[in-house]
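Example S7 (structure tokens).
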């Protein structure tokens, strides 16, 4: 096996990296080797500097991913004793600004639920299914793929938790709200199909694309711009509103299934005022200053 293959195997086995991540890193490393015209594992500092110059016209996010792949690759080589030096210091450190998540206000969430509940009042199966999907997206912060692929066996019995298979095949326990449990109890008797999935379709299970469409249509009926609603935006709303309510960032990381806390920290921008107030009121020195 080549050094690149060994590195990718390590990502899968030891870090549990998602398949798409492994494929993207593999492409980046192989393309870099092609540009060099020689083994990437033996690249010199000067060669990497020239390589970076060839990437100058790339988008910052693309450049950042390629640089990250190479830095991790050379770190792996050093850790494994395959080379003594790490030439990746010649690579640039592109500044990338992660886009802030779109969020829904509490009032907008209430409008969505009011519309979904009104439509489900007749016990129409499709309307009850949509209400259940909405409750689980906003109430548990699930990713679209995690939700639509839930097996029927995931329905909570004795404890208000479901086991979700997240990115990289990592399982996590996610609490289910009483509202979601109530919606599930309405949906299960109406559910048709002999498949193993909680939300079956003619082929397998409800698709991510169809879920996306259903939410857009619900937004229009609720009088909201359709671009304001998607499964991912509901996940953002779940995270943002939990932080506003005083949730711990580490707990939120676990609920969302983020491998790195830095991914979760993007949500703190929406609650900066509360965080400042928290420090001013709760920090020991702040309380001491107030008493002087």
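Recovered sequence:
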């Amino acid at each position: 096996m080549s050094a690149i293959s060994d590195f990718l195997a390590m990502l899968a086995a030891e870090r549990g990296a998602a398949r798409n991540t492994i494929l993207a890193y593999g492409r980046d490393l192989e393309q870099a080797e092609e540009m060099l015209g020689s083994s990437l594992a033996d690249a010199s500092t000067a060669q990497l500097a020239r390589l970076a110059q060839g990437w100058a016209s790339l988008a910052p996010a693309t450049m950042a991913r390629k640089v990250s792949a190479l830095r991790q690759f050379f770190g792996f080589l050093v850790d494994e004793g395959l080379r003594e030096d790490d030439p990746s210091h010649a690579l640039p450190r592109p500044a990338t600004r992660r886009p802030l998540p779109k969020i829904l206000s509490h009032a907008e969430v209430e409008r969505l639920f009011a519309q979904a509940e009104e439509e489900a009042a007749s016990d129409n199966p499709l309307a009850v299914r949509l209400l259940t999907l909405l409750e689980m997206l906003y109430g548990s912060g699930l990713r679209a793929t995690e939700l639509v692929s839930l097996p029927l066996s995931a329905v909570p019995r004795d404890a208000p938790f479901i086991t979700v298979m997240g990115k990289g095949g990592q399982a996590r326990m996610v609490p289910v709200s009483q509202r979601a449990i109530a919606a599930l109890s309405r949906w299960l008797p109406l559910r048709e199909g002999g498949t193993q999935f909680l939300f079956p379709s003619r082929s397998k299970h409800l698709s991510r694309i169809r879920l996306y469409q259903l939410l857009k249509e619900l937004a229009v009926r609720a009088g909201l711009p359709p671009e304001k609603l998607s499964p991912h935006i509901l996940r953002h709303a779940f995270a943002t509103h939990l932080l506003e309510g005083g949730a711990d960032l580490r707990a939120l990381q676990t609920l969302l299934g983020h491998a790195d806390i830095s991914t979760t920290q993007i949500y703190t921008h929406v609650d900066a005022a509360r965080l400042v107030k928290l420090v001013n009121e709760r920090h020991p020195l702040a309380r001491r200053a107030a008493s002087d």
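Notes on this example. The mean pLDDT is 83.
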